[in-house]
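Assess this:
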Amino acid sequence: MGEPLVATYSIAACDLEAGRWGVATQSKFLGVGSIVPWAEPGAGAVATQAYANPRYGPEGLALLRQGADAETVVRTLTEADQGRDHRQLGVVDARGGSATFTGPECIVWAGGLTGPCFAAQGNILVGEETVAALAGTFAATAGKPLAERLLECLAAAQAAGGDRRGQQSAAILVVERDGGYAGLSDVLVDLRVDDHEQPVAELSRLYRMHDLLFGKTPADQWLEVDDELRDEIAGRLSGLGYDGDPDEAFLAWSSTENLEERVDGLARVDPVVLEELRRA
Protein backbone atom coordinates (compact mmCIF):
# COMPACT_ATOMS: atom_id res chain seq x y z
CA MET A 1 0.00 0.00 0.00
CA GLY A 2 1.29 3.44 -0.90
CA GLU A 3 -0.91 5.42 1.47
CA PRO A 4 0.08 6.47 5.01
CA LEU A 5 -0.88 4.07 7.80
CA VAL A 6 -3.00 6.22 10.07
CA ALA A 7 -3.60 3.74 12.88
CA THR A 8 -5.84 5.66 15.19
CA TYR A 9 -9.16 6.09 16.90
CA SER A 10 -11.67 8.74 15.93
CA ILE A 11 -15.25 9.86 16.30
CA ALA A 12 -17.27 11.71 13.69
CA ALA A 13 -20.36 13.33 15.18
CA CYS A 14 -22.95 16.07 15.02
CA ASP A 15 -25.25 18.20 17.16
CA LEU A 16 -28.29 18.76 14.98
CA GLU A 17 -29.90 21.29 17.32
CA ALA A 18 -26.80 23.48 17.28
CA GLY A 19 -26.10 22.84 13.59
CA ARG A 20 -22.61 21.51 14.25
CA TRP A 21 -20.61 18.63 12.77
CA GLY A 22 -17.13 17.52 13.75
CA VAL A 23 -14.40 14.93 14.11
CA ALA A 24 -11.90 14.25 16.87
CA THR A 25 -8.98 11.86 16.56
CA GLN A 26 -5.75 10.62 18.19
CA SER A 27 -2.95 8.47 16.79
CA LYS A 28 0.62 7.29 17.08
CA PHE A 29 1.20 9.15 13.82
CA LEU A 30 2.68 12.56 13.04
CA GLY A 31 0.05 15.23 12.32
CA VAL A 32 -3.07 13.07 12.31
CA GLY A 33 -5.20 16.19 11.90
CA SER A 34 -3.87 16.69 8.38
CA ILE A 35 -5.52 13.48 7.14
CA VAL A 36 -8.36 12.10 9.27
CA PRO A 37 -10.93 14.87 9.98
CA TRP A 38 -13.29 16.42 7.41
CA ALA A 39 -16.54 18.28 8.03
CA GLU A 40 -18.90 20.75 6.40
CA PRO A 41 -21.91 22.45 8.04
CA GLY A 42 -25.24 21.25 6.75
CA ALA A 43 -23.56 18.33 4.98
CA GLY A 44 -21.81 16.07 7.47
CA ALA A 45 -18.51 14.76 8.78
CA VAL A 46 -15.99 12.16 7.59
CA ALA A 47 -13.10 10.40 9.33
CA THR A 48 -10.67 8.48 7.08
CA GLN A 49 -7.91 6.33 8.56
CA ALA A 50 -5.99 2.98 8.68
CA TYR A 51 -4.16 2.84 5.32
CA ALA A 52 -5.94 6.14 4.83
CA ASN A 53 -7.40 7.30 1.57
CA PRO A 54 -7.40 11.10 1.99
CA ARG A 55 -9.71 11.43 -1.02
CA TYR A 56 -12.48 9.95 1.10
CA GLY A 57 -12.65 13.35 2.84
CA PRO A 58 -13.51 15.73 -0.01
CA GLU A 59 -15.29 13.07 -2.05
CA GLY A 60 -17.36 12.04 0.95
CA LEU A 61 -18.33 15.62 1.71
CA ALA A 62 -19.34 16.12 -1.93
CA LEU A 63 -21.69 13.15 -1.69
CA LEU A 64 -23.09 14.38 1.61
CA ARG A 65 -23.60 17.84 0.13
CA GLN A 66 -25.69 16.25 -2.59
CA GLY A 67 -27.95 14.66 0.02
CA ALA A 68 -26.51 11.15 0.26
CA ASP A 69 -26.94 9.43 3.61
CA ALA A 70 -24.01 8.07 5.62
CA GLU A 71 -24.43 4.44 4.54
CA THR A 72 -24.59 5.43 0.88
CA VAL A 73 -21.42 7.51 1.24
CA VAL A 74 -19.51 4.63 2.84
CA ARG A 75 -20.71 2.18 0.23
CA THR A 76 -19.96 4.51 -2.69
CA LEU A 77 -16.45 5.36 -1.52
CA THR A 78 -15.37 1.85 -0.61
CA GLU A 79 -16.87 0.09 -3.63
CA ALA A 80 -14.87 2.37 -5.94
CA ASP A 81 -11.60 1.82 -4.04
CA GLN A 82 -9.44 -1.24 -4.77
CA GLY A 83 -7.62 -0.64 -1.48
CA ARG A 84 -10.81 -0.77 0.59
CA ASP A 85 -9.77 -3.87 2.52
CA HIS A 86 -7.12 -1.76 4.24
CA ARG A 87 -9.33 1.29 4.87
CA GLN A 88 -11.31 2.53 7.83
CA LEU A 89 -14.01 5.16 7.51
CA GLY A 90 -16.64 6.85 9.65
CA VAL A 91 -19.39 9.13 8.34
CA VAL A 92 -22.19 11.20 9.88
CA ASP A 93 -24.69 12.81 7.53
CA ALA A 94 -26.84 15.96 7.56
CA ARG A 95 -29.67 14.19 9.42
CA GLY A 96 -27.52 12.53 12.06
CA GLY A 97 -27.40 9.19 10.31
CA SER A 98 -24.12 7.33 10.75
CA ALA A 99 -22.06 4.53 9.26
CA THR A 100 -18.64 3.03 9.84
CA PHE A 101 -16.48 0.71 7.76
CA THR A 102 -13.47 -1.40 8.70
CA GLY A 103 -11.71 -3.32 5.93
CA PRO A 104 -10.88 -6.95 6.72
CA GLU A 105 -7.15 -6.30 6.31
CA CYS A 106 -7.00 -3.52 8.94
CA ILE A 107 -4.58 -4.37 11.73
CA VAL A 108 -6.30 -5.71 14.85
CA TRP A 109 -7.84 -4.69 17.05
CA ALA A 110 -9.95 -2.82 14.51
CA GLY A 111 -13.65 -2.02 14.39
CA GLY A 112 -16.32 0.58 14.91
CA LEU A 113 -19.64 1.44 16.53
CA THR A 114 -22.43 3.75 15.41
CA GLY A 115 -25.43 5.42 16.97
CA PRO A 116 -27.59 8.50 16.51
CA CYS A 117 -25.30 11.35 15.42
CA PHE A 118 -21.98 9.50 15.81
CA ALA A 119 -19.63 7.01 14.19
CA ALA A 120 -16.70 5.77 16.30
CA GLN A 121 -13.84 3.65 14.95
CA GLY A 122 -10.26 2.63 15.52
CA ASN A 123 -7.49 0.28 14.43
CA ILE A 124 -4.29 -1.09 15.99
CA LEU A 125 -6.01 -0.57 19.33
CA VAL A 126 -5.41 -2.26 22.66
CA GLY A 127 -8.97 -3.60 22.33
CA GLU A 128 -12.58 -2.87 21.51
CA GLU A 129 -12.98 -1.03 24.82
CA THR A 130 -11.36 2.03 23.22
CA VAL A 131 -14.16 2.37 20.67
CA ALA A 132 -16.75 1.50 23.31
CA ALA A 133 -15.43 4.41 25.39
CA LEU A 134 -15.84 6.77 22.44
CA ALA A 135 -19.45 5.69 21.94
CA GLY A 136 -20.37 5.60 25.62
CA THR A 137 -18.87 8.98 26.40
CA PHE A 138 -20.61 10.62 23.46
CA ALA A 139 -23.97 9.37 24.72
CA ALA A 140 -23.19 10.33 28.33
CA THR A 141 -22.24 13.93 27.50
CA ALA A 142 -25.43 14.89 25.66
CA GLY A 143 -26.28 18.56 26.22
CA LYS A 144 -22.70 19.82 26.26
CA PRO A 145 -21.17 21.72 23.31
CA LEU A 146 -20.04 19.34 20.58
CA ALA A 147 -16.36 20.24 20.87
CA GLU A 148 -16.35 19.48 24.60
CA ARG A 149 -18.09 16.16 24.00
CA LEU A 150 -15.55 15.14 21.38
CA LEU A 151 -12.62 16.02 23.63
CA GLU A 152 -14.13 14.01 26.47
CA CYS A 153 -14.53 11.11 24.06
CA LEU A 154 -10.84 11.22 23.17
CA ALA A 155 -9.82 11.31 26.83
CA ALA A 156 -12.07 8.38 27.71
CA ALA A 157 -10.79 6.34 24.77
CA GLN A 158 -7.19 6.98 25.75
CA ALA A 159 -7.93 5.99 29.34
CA ALA A 160 -9.47 2.77 27.99
CA GLY A 161 -6.25 1.86 26.19
CA GLY A 162 -6.12 3.85 22.98
CA ASP A 163 -3.69 3.12 20.15
CA ARG A 164 -1.64 0.13 21.29
CA ARG A 165 1.53 1.74 19.87
CA GLY A 166 1.14 4.81 22.09
CA GLN A 167 0.36 8.49 21.55
CA GLN A 168 1.73 11.17 19.25
CA SER A 169 -0.84 13.51 17.71
CA ALA A 170 -4.47 14.55 18.12
CA ALA A 171 -6.90 16.91 16.43
CA ILE A 172 -10.42 18.30 16.62
CA LEU A 173 -12.47 19.94 13.87
CA VAL A 174 -15.96 21.37 14.48
CA VAL A 175 -17.93 23.38 11.93
CA GLU A 176 -21.05 25.54 12.13
CA ARG A 177 -22.48 27.82 9.45
CA ASP A 178 -21.09 31.32 10.15
CA GLY A 179 -20.06 30.12 13.60
CA GLY A 180 -16.34 30.83 13.26
CA TYR A 181 -14.17 33.91 13.59
CA ALA A 182 -16.10 37.20 13.27
CA GLY A 183 -19.08 35.26 11.92
CA LEU A 184 -17.27 35.07 8.59
CA SER A 185 -16.08 31.46 8.81
CA ASP A 186 -17.78 28.10 9.15
CA VAL A 187 -14.86 26.67 11.17
CA LEU A 188 -15.82 26.86 14.81
CA VAL A 189 -12.85 24.87 16.16
CA ASP A 190 -9.80 23.59 14.26
CA LEU A 191 -6.99 22.59 16.62
CA ARG A 192 -4.11 20.18 16.11
CA VAL A 193 -1.33 18.73 18.22
CA ASP A 194 1.11 17.26 15.72
CA ASP A 195 3.76 15.72 17.99
CA HIS A 196 3.43 15.47 21.76
CA GLU A 197 3.89 12.92 24.55
CA GLN A 198 0.31 13.52 25.73
CA PRO A 199 -1.51 14.90 22.70
CA VAL A 200 -5.05 14.49 24.05
CA ALA A 201 -4.26 16.46 27.19
CA GLU A 202 -2.45 19.09 25.13
CA LEU A 203 -5.39 19.35 22.75
CA SER A 204 -7.71 19.97 25.69
CA ARG A 205 -5.38 22.71 26.94
CA LEU A 206 -5.43 24.39 23.53
CA TYR A 207 -9.21 24.15 23.43
CA ARG A 208 -9.48 25.95 26.77
CA MET A 209 -7.37 28.77 25.32
CA HIS A 210 -9.49 28.78 22.16
CA ASP A 211 -12.70 28.98 24.16
CA LEU A 212 -11.31 31.85 26.23
CA LEU A 213 -10.42 33.88 23.14
CA PHE A 214 -13.21 32.95 20.76
CA GLY A 215 -16.01 31.52 22.87
CA LYS A 216 -19.28 33.34 23.36
CA THR A 217 -20.90 34.19 26.68
CA PRO A 218 -24.71 34.49 26.33
CA ALA A 219 -25.76 38.14 26.13
CA ASP A 220 -27.96 37.86 29.22
CA GLN A 221 -24.88 36.98 31.28
CA TRP A 222 -22.93 40.12 30.37
CA LEU A 223 -22.54 42.69 33.15
CA GLU A 224 -23.86 46.24 33.05
CA VAL A 225 -20.96 48.67 33.51
CA ASP A 226 -21.99 51.18 36.18
CA ASP A 227 -19.82 54.09 37.30
CA GLU A 228 -18.02 52.02 39.92
CA LEU A 229 -17.14 49.22 37.51
CA ARG A 230 -16.17 51.68 34.80
CA ASP A 231 -13.76 53.38 37.21
CA GLU A 232 -12.30 49.99 38.15
CA ILE A 233 -11.79 49.04 34.50
CA ALA A 234 -10.22 52.40 33.68
CA GLY A 235 -7.88 52.09 36.66
CA ARG A 236 -6.77 48.59 35.74
CA LEU A 237 -6.22 49.61 32.12
CA SER A 238 -4.16 52.60 33.21
CA GLY A 239 -2.05 50.35 35.42
CA LEU A 240 -1.30 48.27 32.32
CA GLY A 241 -0.29 51.34 30.32
CA TYR A 242 -3.61 51.89 28.51
CA ASP A 243 -4.51 55.49 29.31
CA GLY A 244 -6.94 57.93 27.74
CA ASP A 245 -10.58 57.33 26.88
CA PRO A 246 -11.66 54.13 28.69
CA ASP A 247 -13.64 52.81 25.69
CA GLU A 248 -10.63 53.18 23.39
CA ALA A 249 -8.24 51.85 26.03
CA PHE A 250 -10.47 48.84 26.65
CA LEU A 251 -10.60 48.00 22.95
CA ALA A 252 -6.84 48.46 22.58
CA TRP A 253 -6.12 46.15 25.52
CA SER A 254 -8.62 43.49 24.45
CA SER A 255 -7.23 43.52 20.90
CA THR A 256 -3.70 43.10 22.20
CA GLU A 257 -4.88 40.10 24.24
CA ASN A 258 -6.87 38.68 21.27
CA LEU A 259 -10.12 39.09 23.19
CA GLU A 260 -11.78 41.51 20.76
CA GLU A 261 -14.36 38.91 19.72
CA ARG A 262 -15.73 39.17 23.28
CA VAL A 263 -15.91 42.98 23.39
CA ASP A 264 -18.70 45.33 22.25
CA GLY A 265 -18.06 48.77 23.68
CA LEU A 266 -17.97 49.42 27.40
CA ALA A 267 -21.64 49.77 28.28
CA ARG A 268 -21.70 46.06 29.05
CA VAL A 269 -18.82 43.66 29.61
CA ASP A 270 -18.37 39.93 29.11
CA PRO A 271 -17.54 38.51 32.59
CA VAL A 272 -14.83 36.33 31.02
CA VAL A 273 -13.07 39.45 29.72
CA LEU A 274 -13.47 41.23 33.04
CA GLU A 275 -11.89 38.29 34.85
CA GLU A 276 -8.95 38.31 32.45
CA LEU A 277 -8.44 42.03 33.02
CA ARG A 278 -8.53 41.54 36.77
CA ARG A 279 -5.87 38.83 36.44
CA ALA A 280 -3.60 40.92 34.23
Residues 219-279 form one domain. Residues 199-214 form the longest helix (16 residues). The radius of gyration is 21 Å.
